Amino acid sequence: DRVIRAAVQSGFRVTFLAHPRVEEMARSTARELPGVEVLASVRHNDLLHLLARARVLITDSGALQRECYYVGCRALVVQARPFWPSLVEAGYNVAVAPDGDIQGALDAALLPAEAIDFDDFGEAPVAPKVVEHLERWIRAF
């Protein structure tokens, strides 16, 4: 609720991708606030398209923190200890504890990120290395 309200106060249209456990709470809050759309779970490709068009993602999901980086969307990570601290340390994502200054952190996440030299994902090209390791793992069985 605090997070959605902070985003609305920043003047943005908010799309809330609701996990089934929080969907009713999100819909209840959205009824009170203009500009909030609640969507149930979406397919991965649809998620990537939404992220690519977003100014910032507010999340507590470890996977989405990396997805944002891949598509060029900054993330405000609402976790006491971010799942991927390297993205925060690199200055790409902004982290805030759940009971912290959500509005201040959101304002920081809305600033453009500096160009970063980030090699946390390994040396390119990565895909052939992944295939090689998977093939080796499959042959082990």
What keyword list fits this structure?
3-stranded parallel β-sheet, 141 residues, 46% helix, 5 strands
Description of the molecule:
The structure is a single chain. With 141 residues, the chain is an alpha/beta fold. It is 46% helix and 14% strand. The chain has 7 helices and 5 strands. The strands form 2 sheets. It has a 3-stranded parallel sheet with strand order 3-4-5, with helices on both faces. Strands 1-2 form a two-stranded parallel sheet. Strand 1, helix 2 and strand 2 (36-39) form a beta-alpha-beta unit. The longest helix is centred in the C-terminal third of the chain and has 13 residues, at 127-139. The radius of gyration is 17 Å and the shape is globular.
Strand order of the largest sheet: 3-4-5
Q: How many runs of DSSP E, i.e. beta strands?
A: 5
Structural class: alpha/beta
Give the proportion of residues in helices.
Answer: 40-55%
